[in-house]
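Sequence in, structure out. Go.
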Amino acid sequence: MQRAQCIEALYPELHDKLVVTIMGACAQELYDLGHRENFFYLEHAMGLASSIGLGLALTLPQEKVVVLDGDGSVLMNLGALATLARYRPANLVHIIFDNGSLLSTGGFASHTTEGITDLAAIARGAGIQQVTAVSTFYDFIEAAADAFERNDLSVIVAKVEAIGPDHYGMDLKLPENAFRFERYIRERRAQTAPA
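Output:
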């Protein structure tokens, strides 16, 4: 299963959700499908996508928040899984694409290579109740649909191939992306605020 295929399948469902990606391949593959103002690509901050997603989910409980993460990023901030479990925002879906590789930073093997470390088991051990591990495209689509419908914190660990995009580079830099993302949230809140 390829991450790019999974992200492409999710893309139509992300139009009304706040989406945070980790740096590198996840960000590039989503960006290449067509940027939307509700997408925030957390460049140069490996390990913090789930933390940003948690903050958004807690402060904007009326919004569905989706974090597109990677195994290397999650391994850098394992404590975030315990924090997610502690606060358990019902509106957060955390998707971890596990390719067993630090693909965006040189392709070195991560601790999930050859099953050494099981991120789904760690998420369950941290106290997250809705954790699904998938390794086929059909199972991924089913798990994502369930998570988007569920009113509970959901984590999906998707085993994918260590294949990245054929290029890296966005013409949308982090400061501009942050300003536009914040403006999108502010305008959306103004539209839904009671008169």
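Check: The beta strands are 18-22, 39-42, 65-70, 92-98, 101-102, 108-109, 130-134, 154-159. The domain at 3-192 is CATH 3.40.50.970 (Rossmann fold).
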